[in-house]
């Protein structure tokens, strides 16, 4: 059926919110400074065969919802046809109300395909055919999907061993769209992993260094940072349970790494010391090159061992963790700041109980050298929904300066996820608009509109210096 559910003033509850959004935020370009899109698909300007390939495959948000409704795994990650998978997703959608998937789904259908119907099992086949016909056409290629949503720049995420060939290929195209990358070296930190030594071998090959010692590892990582920097990289990213901090000596780290390379067992204390040493080395090097470092903290990953064995990681078996964050994070940032080697830093948390912890932590290291040098990042993963984003915005407002905030990112693997920027902008404008109406904020439209435009676009543009 046709609906006015997604309309011009969706989520905007008064005239102030509407004016803020339509006049100051809506038309700002998008800088998506952290995502997991495929640079190869962007460089080759690929098209998708059908809507399932672009919209459902790889989307563990949707998969979790389908499983909860009782959909058989064959229609999620199994051998069912793409049309059957789409039909089962359509069957699920009406039951996702109050989950952000309900909003995202209908925003994405509207913004990419001009479809304003509520997706159900009844219209699934028709919408499957209509969207698949469009998305398989050149007008809906990966680059055109990004341009359709006014994306100015995307920053993908690559491992240090990546040769960045797709980024190099893309740069020869002189496209109005820009693409860069973020350096994600977590595999070089997680010494407790069974695959650590094999990964270090591959890192050595990429850096053309035989890695036998702790100094070799530092040399290899630094060499890859130089390579990424030469290819336009300005960011790093880390996905960790928590920041660790332990006292250590260089001799201890050399011995720990040597023992691991010799396939000897490593104690839990040695694991923490090594992780701290690598992270401090990396962070000091990021500061040297003028990069922004990002830390995504608090995910409890791979909880379902049975399904992990069947499907592997990143398939929808992760949740919020309740790790202790404050003390070691403070010590880590302080260790870098004490040497004047603290890079621009963005901290993201997955546990909403830590909102105020991180919102106050950033103030400890904003030293006046750079506007918003240390940032409390936007609602991430389970928190990138209305309630989660509102709580993050409120914590940042109460404890810091929301006016310096660098705004939203998708953190997504999907080329159809970019209406999440619109979603965030509407929530931001509504939050401020409601307070203008009640008198908690002055009805100074030009000034508050400028703050909205800055958060939507200009702060990120200036902060990252792309």
From TrEMBL:
<dbReference type="GO" id="GO:0042840">
    <property type="term" value="P:D-glucuronate catabolic process"/>
</dbReference>
<dbReference type="GO" id="GO:0019698">
    <property type="term" value="P:D-galacturonate catabolic process"/>
</dbReference>
<comment type="pathway">
    <text>Carbohydrate metabolism; pentose and glucuronate interconversion.</text>
</comment>
<dbReference type="GO" id="GO:0008880">
    <property type="term" value="F:glucuronate isomerase activity"/>
</dbReference>
<dbReference type="InterPro" id="IPR003766">
    <property type="entry name" value="Uronate_isomerase"/>
</dbReference>
<protein>
    <recommendedName>
        <fullName>Uronate isomerase</fullName>
        <ecNumber>5.3.1.12</ecNumber>
    </recommendedName>
</protein>
<dbReference type="Pfam" id="PF02614">
    <property type="entry name" value="UxaC"/>
</dbReference>
<dbReference type="InterPro" id="IPR032466">
    <property type="entry name" value="Metal_Hydrolase"/>
</dbReference>
<keyword id="KW-0413">Isomerase</keyword>
<comment type="similarity">
    <text>Belongs to the metallo-dependent hydrolases superfamily. Uronate isomerase family.</text>
</comment>
């Amino acid at each position: 059926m046709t609906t006015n559910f997604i309309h011009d003033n969706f989520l905007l509850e008064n005239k102030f919110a509407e004016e803020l959004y339509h006049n100051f935020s809506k038309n700002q370009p998008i800088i998506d400074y952290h995502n997991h899109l495929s640079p190869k698909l962007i460089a080759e300007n690929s098209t998708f065969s059908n809507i399932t390939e672009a919209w459902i495959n790889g989307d563990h948000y949707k998969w979790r919802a389908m499983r909860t409704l009782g959909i058989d795994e064959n229609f999620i990650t199994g051998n069912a046809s793409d049309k059957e998978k789409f039909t089962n997703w359509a069957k699920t959608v009406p039951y996702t109300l109050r989950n952000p998937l309900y909003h995202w789904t209908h925003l994405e259908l509207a913004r990419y395909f001009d479809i304003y119907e509520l997706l159900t099992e009844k219209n699934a086949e028709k919408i499957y055919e209509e969207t698949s016909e469009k998305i398989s056409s050149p007008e809906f290629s990966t680059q055109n999907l990004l341009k359709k949503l006014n994306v100015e720049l995307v920053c993908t995420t690559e491992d240090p061993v990546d040769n960045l060939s797709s980024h190099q290929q893309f740069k020869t195209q002189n496209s109005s769209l820009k693409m860069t990358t973020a350096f994600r070296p977590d595999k070089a930190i997680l010494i407790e992993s069974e695959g650590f030594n094999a990964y270090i071998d591959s890192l050595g090959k990429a850096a053309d260094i035989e890695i036998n010692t702790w100094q070799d590892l530092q040399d290899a990582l630094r060499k890859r940072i130089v390579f990424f920097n030469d290819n336009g990289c300005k960011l790093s990213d880390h996905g960790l349970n928590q920041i660790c901090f332990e006292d250590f000596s260089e001799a201890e780290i050399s011995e720990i790494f040597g023992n691991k390379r010799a396939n000897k067992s490593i104690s839990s204390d040695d694991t923490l010391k090594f992780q701290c040493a690598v992270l401090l080395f990396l962070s000091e090097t990021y500061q040297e090159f003028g990069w922004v470092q990002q830390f995504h903290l608090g995910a409890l990953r791979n909880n379902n061992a049975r399904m992990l064995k069947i499907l592997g990681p990143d398939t929808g078996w992760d949740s919020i963790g309740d790790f202790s964050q404050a003390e070691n994070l403070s010590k880590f940032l302080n260790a870098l700041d004490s040497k004047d080697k603290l890079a621009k830093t963005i901290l993201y948390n997955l546990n909403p109980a830590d909102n105020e912890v991180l919102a106050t932590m950033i103030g400890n290291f904003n030293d006046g050298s750079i506007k918003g040098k240390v940032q409390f990042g936007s609602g991430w993963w389970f928190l990138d929904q209305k309630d989660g984003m509102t709580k993050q915005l409120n914590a940042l407002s109460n404890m810091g300066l929301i006016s310096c905030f660098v705004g939203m990112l998708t953190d997504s693997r999907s080329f159809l996820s970019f209406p999440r920027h619109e979603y965030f902008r509407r929530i931001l404008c509504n939050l401020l608009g409601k307070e203008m109406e009640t008198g908690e904020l002055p009805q100074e439209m030009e000034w508050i509109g400028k703050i909205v435009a800055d958060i939507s676009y200009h702060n990120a543009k200036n902060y990252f210096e792309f």
